[in-house]
Amino acid sequence: MRSVEVDDSWSFKELGRLETSYLTHDYHKYPAKFIPQLTDRFIKENSRIGDLVCDPFMGSGTTLVEAIVNGRRAYGTDINPVAVLISKAKTTPIEPAYLKDQISHLLGDLKSSMGMKHLGQMSLLTCNDVDIRIPDNKRLEYWFPEKQMVDLAIILSRISQIENQDVKIFSLCAFSNILRGCSKWMMKSVKPTIDKDKIIADAYKSFFHQTRRMIIKNGEFWKILGTKDYDCVVDNVDAYKMRLKENSVSLIVTSPPYVTSYEYADLHQLTAIWLGYADKLSEFRSKFIGSIRKDDHLPIDLYSKLGRKIAAELRQIDKREANGVERYFFEMQLCFQEMHRVLKHGGRAFIVIGDTELKGVGIHNGDVFIQTMEKFGFTIHQVIKRPIPSKILPLTRDKKTGRFISALKADRLAYPFEHILAMVKT
After folding, report:
1. Other residues' Cβ atoms within 10 Å of the Cβ of residue 62
2. 148: closest CA among 203, 197, 192, 204?
3. What Rg, from alpha-carbon coordinates, does the chain have?
4. Concatenated DSSP letters for 323-338?
5. pLDDT-derived band of residue 295, with 50, 70 and 90 as boundaries?
6. Is the per-residue pLDDT at 289 higher than 90?
7. Using CA atoms, how far apart are residues 310 and 321, in angstroms rounded to an integer?
8. φ, ψ (nearest 5 deg) of residue 425
């Protein structure tokens, strides 16, 4: 991989935030989010209208959105329920006048309810139309002042009463995206960190502005898709258990999680707790690929010689981390086997991944992936090395631990470049 020259044409560094957040792409913040122009290029150059495009690690659904606006069918899956929520919201255009009316009623009810709460008339809220239920989780007390918890509970309780499922998902997505601003979470930190001096955002105002922004984006999305038939499936299964027929996919576009992917569970914990996706953070983490907390006793047999070497080298330093890396490579191996199953002969898989270090050991993901995919019958079409100036990703790591840390404390960038592996099923 080191011999591959950097290709700036894939960096899209000339694009600003407004250009990369068109349509519904700006609904929700998400770590390691694809630049939509990247997926748009993959799709236009490597598939035809009507083809099925698949993203086995869909994250916030960028590939799915770009697939359906380009006239392709789309299938995506993610084991993270937060990703599923966001992707469903982003890929579902709602008739603009109807959505605006529904959200106006919601905001009006919330304003009235919160007004009564601040007047001390809590009994009116609990006995009439708003049943306030704050999740019984001590983590909420850690992150949120009592006032914020009550206000957020009122918003969530009112959202739960929405009958139209598309509007409910839209509203839950908005609710999820305001949680960090309404908490003690340090906004610029890549790790869950308390900011004791933070001026915590007002829950109602945050939700009001978030839904208003999303309504505008939905209107743009509706103009493209609202009157057209489109086919998009958002799934919530492991990437190696996709509910697709053999030889049905024309193109795979995906960016798999990195070795320490379970760290991303930390970044989604607020939504996971509020929406009941997990009672304990450890349980939530265990779902992510390569988690050292999994206990499924799968026999691990790595096809990549380099993967085995990396795990062995790391085992001399930290056995627990080595087990995690070995499990990660093995679970990715299962995913590549599944990609080969669903992809048509001659179909291409574009895998976007970067290399990193853990405990001082080089984790050469790209080379391990190529070795593994070749075992299943993939051949290399092209390898592209691109800088990632615009990718939303925690970029800083501590040299000793390999963990994401604050940019102020970091001694290096984690992923200054990443590779695009263009593999063909032969």
Report:
1. 26
2. 203
3. 22
4. HHHHHHHHHHHHHHHH
5. low
6. no
7. 11
8. -80, 120
